[in-house]
From TrEMBL, chains A, B:
Gene that specifies this protein: fttA
The record's free-text note on cofactor binding: Binds 2 Zn(2+) ions, which are required for nuclease activity.
Source taxonomy: Archaea, Methanobacteriati, Methanobacteriota, Stenosarchaea group, Methanomicrobia
Methyltransferase among keywords: no
Cofactor names: Zn(2+)
Biological role stated in the UniProt entry: Terminates transcription on the whole genome. Termination is linked to FttA-mediated RNA cleavage and does not require NTP hydrolysis. Cleaves endonucleolytically at the RNA exit channel of RNA polymerase (RNAP); the 5'-3' exonuclease activity of this protein degrades the nascent RNA released from RNAP.
Keyword Nucleus: no
Name used for this protein in its record: Transcription termination factor FttA
Length: 638, 638
């Protein structure tokens, strides 16, 4: 049966299940969804259950869209929406897209536009024909989110074509009689950086992550040229677990090399990775290093991105279903669960995960409907890599800040824009609100503020407590007056020229670049100041050197481009425990308490000895087959 | 440097090393060789050392060919050859090929045409310009050998183009900076049948064997469609270890699927595999089974075959050198040694091997200049698969024959055409000559006689003793009067209709097809007859059933196509010890005594538990890393 016949067939099936007088114009695959066009969207809206029942019967995701003929003109529609939606929703920015019959409504309280179980949305549809989509008006303005939303709206027509072609690929006919499942490791094994895997069956091939090894020019790229990945144009899908560049950095490159398929990720991951990718090529260009792709390829990736919510089972290939689960590592970070064939095999790629609660996120999920094979990160896989508790880490940080402020000193914290910065911000806001530390300004420099704005845009992805305080108590810690984004060179210069007790959070996290260097040069010589490391410092970085105790640092002068020597008289403190990665115990527990018990665990994303150590410990404790993966191998699961 | 520049460069280098007055017309890569064309072949012929020195300096194989201008006309040349070569050489069939300036001379005693260290050959060149190639006039006429030689002569022009293009591929420029070596298993792991591997580097990909699993329609083919093998057109080379169909059966199919490169094997392997491949598709067609390719593709493979002698180091890709070593399994069977990069890594694929002397062959070679990784067969890898000695096996077989002949019975031996048949023939000839068994006729039915003719054509590939008795004592056991090829249906019918004491060797070896079935139907009911198994009977074959003791066998009637039941009253004997495979002890010894000691051993070509058993035993005894390979995996060696 070819795809046209299949669609005709589906149309008949759907019609047969509808009430007698309901008609549909056409059905079409768009991405993983089946879209039903009808001249009577009201009837569907009236019967919320019809779609749910249909989707269950047909085992696919179904959306109903109005036939263009029945749409009320935009002007009139806006009035009607205004009448239906309560004013407290604070709607703004309506965008009507006749291609898909959707109106995108930005609202400060999207829940009020949605209504109980979608009641309000359905009422809107009944009145105007258009299908309303609600997005949150960001409480902190994010340039990234705004640009991406605009970009997606402007390219809706092209996107529809992309989705149609993806949909047809997913639902193509299959022919192979062989049954096997393989994993190919293209990067990120026995190392951290350039994470990249391929999961393949006789029918399909999907890539999981495609990261860059920022620390190394030589081994920067995953081995994308090996036959298992070649030609990239024949991959079915790329799955992105989270936005960090060691997972997302080379996804735009795929489009340069001929890939034209979809990228699946969560909504926050889409926005955060675009932010980090653009910054990556921007910095590389400025530093005269290899710039592997252009911003146009970042946009290409965006056009092909299909966002999925956690726990949403989605067909991504004829024989592969993908489900994302919260991984607790950074905003939008996901564990990817693949169900292959009709119960043939289940593989879980953990990506980076935190199996423990943090200020920001719930712990990683380790309960699945089924799982036979697990591919797990091993960043802290070493048996002596136990970390202090978060509580201890917070106390330690507070004490360091109190001590420094007592001396009227400045606290300088190098931090990654995405992840630890927001964690530290919440800790500081909490301590200031409770009076535990003085109410000094907390400057945020680099991309931290922009990344925080994206966090504030997607509170659904934060943990219960934080979400509640944002939604219900109206007490968004990110909006605290203590936080001062450094949004100009003038402000930065002022902070440097007029030193006063404060906390400065600045990128880059390992001090290899970014505004942190300016502050360091200015404040290093004063013994009343403190430099606090809250994240991992990789070998070869300035951060690691300072941690090791270097007291004289040669640096390029900010004034004349020559070299100056920085004397490090400031205190240097290392506050462990803020990691977004599971520590050794959490890695072991994640596997031990996994439901159901997996048959096989492969380790990756860690130094060689950590990966091996973790694999052998998991084997000894659980009697589960384990192995530390090696780059460039293809192993068979079934 | 592109290839034309490289050739000009080589030409200059060669000229600079020649005596002042020697000129060359042109140089060209043809297959792995560098061909030097000259108008003065006599000068090269005079100085046998020039070429040897050049080859060493340039690290490549060099042949010198006369420029067409200087060739003496064929008629005249034949007279001159007659004057130079002694009459005892018994030359016949001259074939002049102006394309390559070669004359092929068939002779009964090629050594006399070659002369001491090639002296006579050089004398011929000096006289006529043409380069003489000597081939043995087969002492038993082989249709196969005759057809292939004719075919190769008729397609010499196309072959020259093929060789030129192969040569250019081998000597192409390389660019990659990465260094890695991988092995992909496409078939023959944890099973016997469809052996197929790919050895790959960033520059090159070569396939080792491409066999068919005759016993299984479902898992008949290696997994040729996986990315590591795809597209076949981009493979650099196919290496064939020996002619058995589980290694050679799908090589013609590669040409159907787009492969256009060379097949490297020994000369006997080329002829034997063409024989077996043609028979394979012939039988499949007759039995109404899948015929995977046509005879035209067998010819295509022949056209692309480049034969190599044992111990001849040959460039087969920019970064891979191949050397074949005797493997002692069947005529022409080889162990393939790959030297990769400039000392980067050395891999040995054993193919099938016998690490022990037999009547036909020397033991397999296990001394190499270097070796890090070994991929070994495991047919008898089980710890309880120790076999009787050959001597005991021979005695056992003699006794069975004596007992049967005493009762005026008939001895029926199902045998593979290539390998065990010739071994058994030599044992029987020896026993008859020594008067140990009666001088009854030994009928050879199926392809056994043709395969024997090929053995007789290439005595250089037999062991010392047998070769000596053929060459020096003029006592070729294959030419014994006791052997009666069954070359017509009439003769077969006569043997069946007029039973008399005799030994019948007939194919197929596992009684799944072939003339053996006719004899079995005729002689099974008589308790004075004996059925003797000298080879392995796979599960599911008639041979295995009879071994297990079935006494009533339903078979299709040879008369009317209906079903008849055969009562098995004849004796059934199993004579172990005639295997061309190493038994358990020989497998273990092969690795233990290997020089140098390898770092890693992978097992394949055996039932799953045998492969695992052998891998774990080798690890325990030698503390060498081992693993039983799985189909569809790609492992990394470097
Ligand atoms: Zn991460
Ligand atoms: Zn990571
Ligand atoms: Zn064999
Ligand atoms: Zn074999
Ligand atoms: Zn060798």
């Amino acid at each position: 049966m070819d795809i046209e016949e299949m669609l005709l067939d589906l149309k008949k099936k759907i019609e047969s299940k509808l009430p007698n007088d309901t008609t549909i114009s056409t059905v079409e695959f768009e991405g993983p969804q089946l879209v039903v066009y009808t001249e009577e969207p009201r009837k569907f809206a009236d019967n919320g259950n019809i779609i749910r029942t249909l989707a269950k019967d047909l085992r696919t995701r179904i959306v109903v869209r109005p036939d263009p003929k029945v749409l009320v003109p935009p002007e009139e529609s806006m009035d009607k929406i205004g009448n239906i939606v309560p004013e407290e929703a604070a709607t703004s920015n309506y965008h009507f897209d006749p291609d898909v019959g959707e109106v995108i409504i930005e609202a400060e309280k999207p829940g009020l536009v949605i209504g109980k179980q979608g009641d309000t949305l359905r009422e809107i549809t009944k009145e105007i024909g258009w299908t309303p989509k609600v997005v949150r008006t960001p409480p902190i303005k994010s340039r990234t989110v705004k640009n991406i939303r605009e970009f997606m709206r402007n390219n809706h027509k092209e996107r529809k074509d992309i989705l149609k072609s993806v949909g047809r690929q997913i639902h193509r006919e299959t022919t192979t009689k062989d049954q096997w499942v393989r994993i190919t490791s293209l990067g990120g094994c026995k190392e951290v950086g350039r994470s990249c895997f391929i999961l393949s069956t006789p029918e399909s091939r999907v890539m999981i992550d495609c990261g860059v090894n920022i620390g190394s020019d030589e081994n920067m790229t995953p081995y994308l040229y090996v036959p298992e990945a070649y030609p990239l144009s024949q991959l079915d899908a790329v799955i992105l677990t989270h936005a960090h560049l060691d997972h997302s950095g080379f996804i735009p490159l795929l489009y340069k090399y001929g890939y034209q398929g979809p990228v699946y990720c969560t909504l926050p991951t889409r926005d955060l990775s675009a932010l980090l990718q653009l910054d990556y090529i921007d910095v590389a260009g400025k530093e005269g290093r290899i710039v592997p792709y252009e911003s146009s390829q970042v946009r290409e990736a965006l056009k092909h991105t299909i966002t999925l919510d956690f726990e949403e089972v989605t067909d991504i290939a004829p024989d592969i279903k993908l489900t994302f689960h919260n991984s607790g590592h950074i905003l939008g970070s996901a564990i990817a669960h693949f169900h292959i064939g009709d119960g043939l095999h289940n593989v879980v790629f953990t990506g980076d995960y935190k199996y423990g609660s943090t200020r920001l996120f719930d712990p990683a999920v380790n309960k699945f409907p089924r799982v036979e094979t697990v591919v797990t990160e091993s960043t802290y896989g070493s048996s002596n890599a136990v970390q202090p508790t978060l509580k201890d880490a917070e106390k330690h940080l507070q004490q360091v800040i109190i001590n420094t402020l007592q001396k009227d000193g400045i606290v300088l914290i190098p931090a990654f824009a995405v992840g630890r910065s927001q964690e530290v911000m919440i800790v500081l806001e909490d301590a200031i609100r409770k009076g535990l530390i003085d109410d000094v300004p907390i400057y945020l420099d680099g991309m931290i503020w922009e990344a925080t704005a994206i966090h504030a845009t997607y509170p659904e992805y934060l943990n219960n407590e934080l979400r509640k305080s944002i939604f219900q108590k109206g007490q968004n810690p990110f909006l605290s007056d203590s936080f001062k984004p450094v949004d100009s060179n003038e402000l930065r210069q002022k902070i440097i020229d007029e030193p006063h007790p404060c906390v400065i959070l600045a990128t880059a996290g390992m001090m290899n670049a970014g505004p942190i260097l300016e502050y360091f040069k200015a404040f290093a010589s004063n013994e009343n100041n403190t430099l606090v490391f809250v994240g991992y410092q990789a070998d070869g970085t300035l951060g690691r050197r300072i941690q090791k105790g270097w007291k004289e640092i040669p640096m390029s002068s900010s004034v004349n481009g020559g070299t100056q020597t920085i004397n490090v008289n400031m205190n240097v403190e290392v506050v462990d425990g803020f990691s977004g990665h599971s520590d050794r115990k959490q890695l072991m527990d994640f596997v031990k308490k996994m439901k159901p018990r997996p048959e096989r665990v492969y380790t990756e994303h860690g130094e060689e000895k950590f990966c091996i150590d973790l694999a052998s410990s998991i084997y000894k404790k659980n009697k589960i087959e384990t192995r530390a993966l090696t780059n460039l191998e293809t192993i068979r699961l079934v």
